[in-house]
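Take a specimen:
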Amino acid sequence: MDQKKFEERITLDVLLTFLDKNGSVSVVNGEEPDFIINDNGTNIGVEIAKVFYNNDNFIGINANKLKTDLIKYLSNRGLYQRGIKDKSSDYGYVYQYVKSYQVLLPPFIIEELDAELRQAIVNSFDNWINAGMNSNEMFSVYDRYYPYTDVELIYMTASMPIMEGDNLAPINENHPLHKIINHKNELLHKNYKQKNPNVKKWWLCLEITTDSTISACKYSFDTNYPNSFDRVFIVDPHRLRVYEIERRNK
Protein backbone atom coordinates (compact mmCIF):
# COMPACT_ATOMS: atom_id res chain seq x y z
CA MET A 1 0.00 0.00 0.00
CA ASP A 2 1.53 3.35 -1.03
CA GLN A 3 1.64 6.42 1.23
CA LYS A 4 -1.35 8.11 -0.39
CA LYS A 5 -3.55 5.04 -0.06
CA PHE A 6 -2.31 4.49 3.51
CA GLU A 7 -3.38 8.03 4.47
CA GLU A 8 -6.74 7.61 2.72
CA ARG A 9 -7.33 4.37 4.63
CA ILE A 10 -6.72 6.14 7.94
CA THR A 11 -9.38 8.69 7.00
CA LEU A 12 -11.78 5.92 5.98
CA ASP A 13 -11.21 4.07 9.27
CA VAL A 14 -12.03 7.24 11.24
CA LEU A 15 -15.27 7.55 9.27
CA LEU A 16 -16.19 3.89 9.72
CA THR A 17 -15.51 4.12 13.46
CA PHE A 18 -17.80 7.17 13.66
CA LEU A 19 -20.51 5.16 11.88
CA ASP A 20 -19.87 2.16 14.16
CA LYS A 21 -18.99 0.05 11.12
CA ASN A 22 -15.22 -0.43 11.53
CA GLY A 23 -14.57 -4.17 11.46
CA SER A 24 -18.10 -5.03 10.35
CA VAL A 25 -17.70 -4.19 6.65
CA SER A 26 -15.27 -5.46 4.02
CA VAL A 27 -13.04 -2.90 2.30
CA VAL A 28 -11.45 -3.11 -1.15
CA ASN A 29 -8.81 -0.57 -2.21
CA GLY A 30 -9.14 1.04 -5.62
CA GLU A 31 -9.11 4.20 -7.70
CA GLU A 32 -12.28 5.90 -8.93
CA PRO A 33 -13.50 5.34 -6.26
CA ASP A 34 -10.77 5.11 -3.64
CA PHE A 35 -12.57 2.32 -1.76
CA ILE A 36 -15.51 0.01 -2.18
CA ILE A 37 -17.01 -1.26 1.04
CA ASN A 38 -19.58 -3.99 1.36
CA ASP A 39 -22.12 -3.39 4.10
CA ASN A 40 -24.54 -6.28 4.54
CA GLY A 41 -24.46 -7.10 0.82
CA THR A 42 -24.60 -3.51 -0.42
CA ASN A 43 -21.57 -2.16 -2.28
CA ILE A 44 -20.76 1.44 -1.38
CA GLY A 45 -18.22 3.50 -3.29
CA VAL A 46 -16.22 5.87 -1.08
CA GLU A 47 -14.22 8.73 -2.57
CA ILE A 48 -11.68 10.49 -0.31
CA ALA A 49 -10.83 14.09 -1.24
CA LYS A 50 -8.56 16.52 0.57
CA VAL A 51 -10.49 19.75 0.62
CA PHE A 52 -7.81 22.00 -0.80
CA TYR A 53 -5.57 20.24 -3.27
CA ASN A 54 -4.76 18.91 -6.73
CA ASN A 55 -6.64 16.71 -9.20
CA ASP A 56 -8.01 19.88 -10.80
CA ASN A 57 -10.39 20.34 -7.87
CA PHE A 58 -9.66 24.06 -7.83
CA ILE A 59 -6.82 24.93 -10.18
CA GLY A 60 -7.49 27.13 -13.18
CA ILE A 61 -5.87 27.71 -16.55
CA ASN A 62 -2.73 29.46 -15.27
CA ALA A 63 -2.18 26.83 -12.59
CA ASN A 64 -2.48 24.11 -15.21
CA LYS A 65 0.21 25.92 -17.21
CA LEU A 66 2.45 25.86 -14.13
CA LYS A 67 1.86 22.14 -13.75
CA THR A 68 2.81 21.64 -17.40
CA ASP A 69 5.96 23.76 -16.91
CA LEU A 70 7.01 21.63 -13.93
CA ILE A 71 6.39 18.36 -15.79
CA LYS A 72 8.45 19.68 -18.74
CA TYR A 73 11.26 20.57 -16.33
CA LEU A 74 11.19 17.07 -14.78
CA SER A 75 11.21 15.51 -18.25
CA ASN A 76 14.23 17.55 -19.30
CA ARG A 77 16.05 16.44 -16.15
CA GLY A 78 15.18 12.79 -16.73
CA LEU A 79 13.06 12.76 -13.58
CA TYR A 80 9.66 12.16 -15.19
CA GLN A 81 8.49 8.55 -15.51
CA ARG A 82 5.82 8.25 -18.18
CA GLY A 83 2.87 5.91 -18.03
CA ILE A 84 3.00 2.48 -19.65
CA LYS A 85 -0.29 1.71 -21.39
CA ASP A 86 -1.88 -1.66 -20.69
CA LYS A 87 -5.27 -2.42 -22.24
CA SER A 88 -5.76 -5.38 -19.91
CA SER A 89 -5.60 -3.12 -16.85
CA ASP A 90 -8.81 -1.73 -15.39
CA TYR A 91 -7.32 1.77 -15.59
CA GLY A 92 -5.48 1.46 -18.91
CA TYR A 93 -1.98 1.81 -17.41
CA VAL A 94 0.56 -0.28 -15.52
CA TYR A 95 0.88 0.86 -11.89
CA GLN A 96 4.47 1.36 -10.70
CA TYR A 97 6.37 3.05 -7.90
CA VAL A 98 7.04 6.64 -8.96
CA LYS A 99 7.69 10.03 -7.40
CA SER A 100 4.88 12.45 -6.60
CA TYR A 101 5.94 16.09 -6.29
CA GLN A 102 3.85 18.58 -4.32
CA VAL A 103 3.95 22.35 -4.73
CA LEU A 104 2.20 24.41 -2.04
CA LEU A 105 0.86 27.78 -3.17
CA PRO A 106 -1.03 30.44 -1.19
CA PRO A 107 -4.57 30.99 -2.55
CA PHE A 108 -4.02 34.60 -3.64
CA ILE A 109 -1.27 33.58 -6.04
CA ILE A 110 -3.38 31.31 -8.23
CA GLU A 111 -4.88 34.04 -10.40
CA GLU A 112 -1.51 35.82 -10.67
CA LEU A 113 0.42 32.97 -12.27
CA ASP A 114 1.67 34.80 -15.34
CA ALA A 115 4.66 33.50 -17.34
CA GLU A 116 7.19 35.42 -15.25
CA LEU A 117 5.88 34.10 -11.92
CA ARG A 118 5.59 30.55 -13.26
CA GLN A 119 9.24 30.66 -14.36
CA ALA A 120 10.26 31.95 -10.93
CA ILE A 121 8.50 28.97 -9.32
CA VAL A 122 10.20 26.55 -11.74
CA ASN A 123 13.57 28.14 -10.84
CA SER A 124 12.83 27.66 -7.14
CA PHE A 125 11.80 24.06 -7.88
CA ASP A 126 15.13 23.54 -9.66
CA ASN A 127 17.05 24.94 -6.68
CA TRP A 128 15.11 22.67 -4.31
CA ILE A 129 15.86 19.55 -6.38
CA ASN A 130 19.56 20.45 -6.66
CA ALA A 131 19.69 20.94 -2.87
CA GLY A 132 18.51 17.39 -2.19
CA MET A 133 14.69 17.63 -2.20
CA ASN A 134 14.20 17.95 1.55
CA SER A 135 10.61 19.00 2.28
CA ASN A 136 10.14 22.70 2.98
CA GLU A 137 7.27 25.18 3.15
CA MET A 138 6.76 25.05 -0.64
CA PHE A 139 7.98 21.71 -2.04
CA SER A 140 7.85 18.06 -1.01
CA VAL A 141 8.13 14.65 -2.66
CA TYR A 142 7.05 11.13 -1.75
CA ASP A 143 6.87 7.67 -3.33
CA ARG A 144 3.55 6.66 -4.81
CA TYR A 145 2.13 3.58 -6.53
CA TYR A 146 0.72 5.25 -9.63
CA PRO A 147 0.91 4.98 -13.46
CA TYR A 148 3.28 7.95 -13.89
CA THR A 149 5.21 10.67 -12.08
CA ASP A 150 2.72 13.13 -10.64
CA VAL A 151 2.87 16.84 -9.89
CA GLU A 152 0.29 18.09 -7.40
CA LEU A 153 -0.51 21.77 -6.90
CA ILE A 154 -1.70 22.38 -3.35
CA TYR A 155 -3.25 25.52 -1.93
CA MET A 156 -5.81 26.71 0.54
CA THR A 157 -9.24 27.72 -0.67
CA ALA A 158 -10.27 30.06 2.12
CA SER A 159 -10.36 30.58 5.85
CA MET A 160 -13.15 28.56 7.43
CA PRO A 161 -15.69 28.31 8.85
CA ILE A 162 -17.81 30.56 6.64
CA MET A 163 -20.44 32.29 8.70
CA GLU A 164 -23.81 33.75 7.81
CA GLY A 165 -24.75 35.90 10.76
CA ASP A 166 -24.45 33.68 13.82
CA ASN A 167 -24.81 30.46 11.83
CA LEU A 168 -22.63 28.45 9.48
CA ALA A 169 -23.28 29.51 5.91
CA PRO A 170 -24.90 26.76 3.80
CA ILE A 171 -22.86 25.19 1.01
CA ASN A 172 -23.91 26.74 -2.27
CA GLU A 173 -22.16 27.68 -5.52
CA ASN A 174 -20.35 30.55 -3.77
CA HIS A 175 -19.05 28.46 -0.89
CA PRO A 176 -15.32 27.53 -0.82
CA LEU A 177 -16.19 23.83 -0.61
CA HIS A 178 -18.33 23.98 -3.74
CA LYS A 179 -15.56 23.46 -6.29
CA ILE A 180 -14.31 20.18 -4.92
CA ILE A 181 -17.83 18.83 -4.29
CA ASN A 182 -18.92 19.86 -7.77
CA HIS A 183 -15.79 18.32 -9.31
CA LYS A 184 -16.37 15.00 -7.55
CA ASN A 185 -20.03 15.03 -8.62
CA GLU A 186 -18.91 15.42 -12.24
CA LEU A 187 -16.53 12.47 -11.87
CA LEU A 188 -19.28 10.45 -10.23
CA HIS A 189 -21.50 10.83 -13.31
CA LYS A 190 -18.78 10.63 -15.99
CA ASN A 191 -16.55 7.88 -14.59
CA TYR A 192 -17.34 6.26 -11.28
CA LYS A 193 -20.86 4.99 -11.94
CA GLN A 194 -20.01 3.70 -15.41
CA LYS A 195 -16.94 1.81 -14.19
CA ASN A 196 -18.69 0.37 -11.15
CA PRO A 197 -22.22 -0.78 -12.06
CA ASN A 198 -22.35 -3.05 -9.01
CA VAL A 199 -21.91 -0.13 -6.61
CA LYS A 200 -25.34 0.92 -5.37
CA LYS A 201 -24.48 3.83 -3.05
CA TRP A 202 -21.86 6.56 -3.12
CA TRP A 203 -20.18 8.46 -0.29
CA LEU A 204 -17.90 11.48 -0.51
CA CYS A 205 -15.44 12.00 2.34
CA LEU A 206 -13.85 15.48 2.56
CA GLU A 207 -10.62 15.18 4.55
CA ILE A 208 -9.33 18.05 6.69
CA THR A 209 -5.52 18.04 6.80
CA THR A 210 -3.14 19.18 9.54
CA ASP A 211 -2.08 22.35 7.70
CA SER A 212 -5.50 23.32 6.41
CA THR A 213 -7.21 26.50 7.59
CA ILE A 214 -10.56 24.86 6.92
CA SER A 215 -12.41 23.71 10.00
CA ALA A 216 -14.32 20.47 10.45
CA CYS A 217 -17.81 21.77 11.22
CA LYS A 218 -21.44 20.78 10.88
CA TYR A 219 -22.09 22.32 7.46
CA SER A 220 -25.28 21.86 5.48
CA PHE A 221 -26.20 21.98 1.80
CA ASP A 222 -28.38 24.82 0.62
CA THR A 223 -31.92 23.65 -0.14
CA ASN A 224 -31.44 23.35 -3.92
CA TYR A 225 -27.73 22.52 -3.96
CA PRO A 226 -26.97 19.90 -6.67
CA ASN A 227 -25.34 16.86 -5.08
CA SER A 228 -25.62 13.25 -6.27
CA PHE A 229 -23.67 11.50 -3.50
CA ASP A 230 -25.87 9.56 -1.11
CA ARG A 231 -23.87 10.81 1.88
CA VAL A 232 -21.17 13.47 2.25
CA PHE A 233 -18.91 13.71 5.29
CA ILE A 234 -16.25 16.08 6.58
CA VAL A 235 -13.55 14.12 8.39
CA ASP A 236 -10.63 15.44 10.42
CA PRO A 237 -8.59 12.25 11.00
CA HIS A 238 -6.08 14.03 13.24
CA ARG A 239 -8.64 15.38 15.71
CA LEU A 240 -11.01 12.45 15.18
CA ARG A 241 -13.91 14.69 14.17
CA VAL A 242 -16.59 13.62 11.72
CA TYR A 243 -19.62 15.58 10.54
CA GLU A 244 -22.18 14.60 7.95
CA ILE A 245 -23.26 17.35 5.54
CA GLU A 246 -27.02 17.24 5.25
CA ARG A 247 -29.48 19.29 3.26
CA ARG A 248 -31.18 22.24 4.90
CA ASN A 249 -34.89 21.99 5.42
CA LYS A 250 -36.94 24.20 3.14
In short: The helical segments are 3-18, 61-76, 115-130, 178-195. Residues 53-59 have pLDDT under 50 and may be disordered.
